[in-house]
Amino acid sequence: MKKTIKRVAIANRGEVAVRIIHACEELGLETVLLHSEPDMGSKAYRMATKTICIGPAASSESYLNIDANIKGALAGGADAIHPGFGFLSENASFAEAVEKAGMTFVGPSADSIRRLGDKVQCKALAKAGGLPLVPGYEGEDQSLERLMKEVEGIGYPVIVKAAAGGGGRGMKLILKASDAKEAIESAQREAQSAFGSSKVFLEKYLDRAKHIEFQVFGDSSGRVVHLFDRECSVQRRHQKIIEEAISPSLTDNLRRQMGEAAAAIATLGKYKGAGTVEFLLQDGEFYLLEVNTRLQVEHPVTEMVLGVDLVKAQLLTAMGEFIFDDQPRIPRGHAIECRLYAENPYLGGIPSTGLLGTVKWPEGPGRRFEYGFEKGDEITPYYDPMIAKVIVWDESRSRAIRKMIHTLKDSIVFGVHTNIPYLIEILNHPEFVEGTMTTRFIEKNFPGALAAPELTAAEKALVELGSKHKPVAGSSLSNSAAESSSSMPWQGYWRGV
Amino acid sequence: MMILKTRVAGKDIEAPSEIVNGVLWIHHEGRTFATELGKKKKRHRAGGASGGGDLEAPMPGKVTKILKTAGESVQRGDAVLVMEAMKMEYTLKAESDSKIASIACAVGEQVTLGQTLVTFEAKAGG
Question: What is the pTM of this model?
Answer without folding.
Answer: 0.82
